[in-house]
From TrEMBL:
First-listed, main subcellular location of the protein, grouped into a coarse class: cytoplasm
Biological source species: Amaricoccus solimangrovi
Protein name: Urease accessory protein UreF
Subunit structure: UreD, UreF and UreG form a complex that acts as a GTP-hydrolysis-dependent molecular chaperone, activating the urease apoprotein by helping to assemble the nickel containing metallocenter of UreC. The UreE protein probably delivers the nickel.
Function: Required for maturation of urease via the functional incorporation of the urease nickel metallocenter.
Coiled-coil segments: none
Cellular localisation: Cytoplasm
Keyword set, alphabetical order: Chaperone, Cytoplasm, Nickel insertion
InterPro entries: UreF, UreF_sf
Pfam families: UreF
GO molecular function: nickel cation binding
One GO location term (cellular component): cytoplasm
Assigned protein family: Belongs to the UreF family.
Amino acid sequence: MADPAPDATRALPDPAQILASWFSPAYPVGAYSYSHGLEWAVEAGEVMGRAGLADWVADLLRHGAGWSDAVLLAATFRAGDPAPLAALAEALAPSSERLLETMAQGGAFARTTAAVWGIALPPMAYPVAVGRAARLLGLPLRPALTLYLQGFAANIVSAGVRLVPLGQTDGQRITADLMPLCAELAARAEGASLDEIGGSALRADLAAMLHETQYTRLYRS
């Protein structure tokens, strides 16, 4: 069955412009509400200072949700039916808050993107929704992966700037230092199979679980 076509009455701009808008802080997915367990990790003393935050986010990219999301996004981009991948994405969430994080952001992304670009995009986990939208609009996969990973990292760094706390310049230095890693992982994920989706970021997963009962919380995860 062919993919449904986007709204033919609207000319698509440069793909880079669309992708830049999707992963801008202004895109209404509510990413600022989530710390991905970082809030607990900072309170527990597991993440301290600029170097500690940089290492934490790099590990999430390499071994945690960053890598898994990238593989899911790429697999969805290649798939005719996103439903099995949507179910897999939900099953991979290691805690209730992480499930909320991916489903709430994915639902918000799907609603906005469907309304703006005239595509059929039901609510799904965030990386699956992005992969499906990129396929339907004919956007290039590699830049979509790179910017998705960069946005993922930048959001956690932004939470760290508030929580550690750090200055904005230090936060931007961390984000800049992580750009080569985002590009490297995007290149790997572009052709990765689902057999390569595994990771091991156990401290981050535990932090996400412990955050559920943290006494004082600014973030939803």
